[in-house]
Each structure stands twice: as structure tokens, then as C-alpha cells.
Automatic annotation (TrEMBL):
Gene3D superfamilies according to UniProt: 3.40.50.360
Stretches assigned to the NADPH-dependent FMN reductase-like domain: 10-158
Entry EC number(s): 1.5.1.-
Source species of the chain: Prescottella soli
UniProtKB keywords: Flavoprotein, FMN, Oxidoreductase
Record has S-adenosyl-L-methionine as a keyword: no
Top EC class, one word: oxidoreductase
Superkingdom, natural source: Bacteria
SUPFAM superfamilies: Flavoproteins
Protein known as: FMN reductase
GO molecular function, one term: oxidoreductase activity
């Protein structure tokens, strides 16, 4: 976890082309989060990860059980992050295989309690529900703390009044992510002994 003046934010983009709409959305979400951090007087340490650059290493990791080279650095970065932005293209009404493979290779517990902003892109608005029926449940299983506002961008969202509406959703999601990151930093890890019963009280309870 970062110091009190800096937050480490990792951005995962599963776009398959270059450039890709997933990377475009990821960059805008990251910019919104950085703006929200700046408003709180906090610096941002941002790293963007293009999963397409690690596709072969992900397959090797799935086969061997061990990350290698640059992929190991990425998984370590995710484990040390204060917040995460995760964006995938939607294929067949769900996340991409590349996106799923990355989260499959993370060590159990890596995302426990980590604030995550979910994003997705697709050719039509009909796929937007994939965020709620596929992507959010996966992060719930991983015990991540996904923020309430997830952002979906269809092809028509990138122009005119639709882009303004998209911009408002992005700004709201960025603020929610930063609020969750700040709350996690303030509360810190849970002490399992914080609310323990004093020994003297335990003895009193056992007395006849």
C-alpha cells in the first residue's frame, strides 16, 4: 500500500487491437480517478497494463502455474495497488477470455478488499448488462470491493451528447473509486483481536 500522500492505481485494459475502445475508456477512467485524487491533495502513481502484451505469458502461466518475466511484475503491481480499474471488451455477452485469464492467474487473496472500478466496451448497448451479470459477480468472488458505478461504452457513446453522458458516468465512477481508496487507507487492515473480550470478563462469565 502507498504512503499517505500517494495512491498506487493500476489500470487493466483487455483490448485486443491497438488502439482499442477498451484502452480509450480505461484512460478516461484513470484520468477521472486522478482528478478526484488531486482534489483531495493526493498524488497518483498510475500504471496502465495492456493485457494483449502479456497474452503468451498468460497462457504459459495457466499451463505451468507460475508467472514469468513482465507478467510477474504486473501481478506484483496489482497486489500492491490501492485501487484497480479493469476494462474488458464484451464478447458473446461476457468478458473476454484474455481478461478472465489474467484474473485467473492472480494468487488467491490478491484482490481482497481492493477497490475496483469496472468498465466494458462493445458495439451495441445491448451488451451493457454483462457488467452486472458476468463481470461484477467475478470480482465479488475474488472478494474485491467493486464500486457501485460501472461504466459501459458502446460505439454510439463516443460522440455528441452521448459522449457528454458517458463523461458524467466516468466522472462519478472515478469519484467513487477514490472515495473507496481513501476509506480503505484510513481504516487499514482489520485487526481480528480489536474487539476481543477481556480475559477478566471471560472468567466472570464462567463463574457459577
Amino acid at each position: 500500500m502507498s504512503d499517505t500522500k500517494t495512491r498506487a492505481l493500476t489500470v487493466i485494459s483487455a483490448g485486443l487491437t491497438q488502439p482499442s475502445s477498451s484502452r480509450l475508456l480505461a484512460d478516461r477512467l484513470a484520468a477521472a480517478a486522478v482528478d478526484a485524487l488531486t482534489e483531495r491533495g493526493i498524488d497518483a502513481d498510475v500504471e496502465v497494463v495492456e493485457l494483449r502484451e502479456h497474452a503468451h505469458a498468460l497462457v504459459d502461466n495457466l499451463l505451468t502455474g507460475f508467472p514469468s518475466g513482465a507478467l510477474r511484475s504486473v501481478t506484483e503491481r496489482v497486489a500492491a495497488s490501492d485501487g484497480l480499474i479493469a476494462v474488458t471488451p464484451i464478447f458473446n455477452a461476457s468478458y473476454s477470455g484474455l481478461f478472465k485469464s489474467f484474473f485467473d492467474v492472480l494468487e488467491p487473496g490478491t484482490l481482497d478488499g481492493v477497490p475496483v472500478l469496472l468498465g466494458a466496451t462493445g458495439g451495441t448497448a445491448r451488451h451493457s448488462l454483462a457488467l452486472e451479470h458476468a463481470i461484477r459477480p467475478m470480482f465479488a468472488y475474488l472478494r474485491a470491493a467493486a464500486v457501485p458505478t460501472a461504466v459501459y461504452a458502446a460505439s454510439e457513446d463516443w460522440a455528441g451528447s452521448d459522449d457528454q453522458a458517458l463523461g458524467r458516468r466516468i466522472a462519478r465512477a472515478g469519484r467513487e473509486l477514490v472515495a473507496a481508496m481513501a476509506e480503505r487507507q484510513n481504516t487499514g487492515p482489520v485487526d481480528p483481536f480489536a474487539n476481543s473480550v477481556p480475559f477478566e470478563e471471560l472468567l466472570e462469565r464462567q463463574a457459577p
